[in-house]
Write a structure and sequence with these properties.
single chain, mainly alpha
Length: 77
């Protein structure tokens, strides 16, 4: 996935997250989906940062790989 594809994926996830929040999260399934979206967004942003860092330091950005949810969810904000 290249940077523009990642940014498009992030936009789609954010749009879905906002739609869900604006509709009102009331069911367990909606709360679970919202959590899934948050994790997916964290993974996408992390991957984009990895790609940019690799490019900045003369490495191949395509060697960046998504990190598992339990890794990106432990990052300090």
């Amino acid at each position: 996935m290249n940077d523009s594809e990642l940014l498009a994926r992030i936009k789609a996830l954010v749009d879905e997250e906002h739609a869900l929040e604006n509709a009102g999260v009331t069911t367990d399934a909606e709360r679970e989906r919202l959590k899934e979206l948050e994790v997916a967004l964290d993974q996408c942003w992390d991957l984009l940062r990895q790609r940019r860092a690799r490019r900045e330091f003369g490495q191949n950005p395509d060697d960046a790989a998504p990190r598992p949810p339990d890794t990106v969810e432990r990052y300090q904000q």
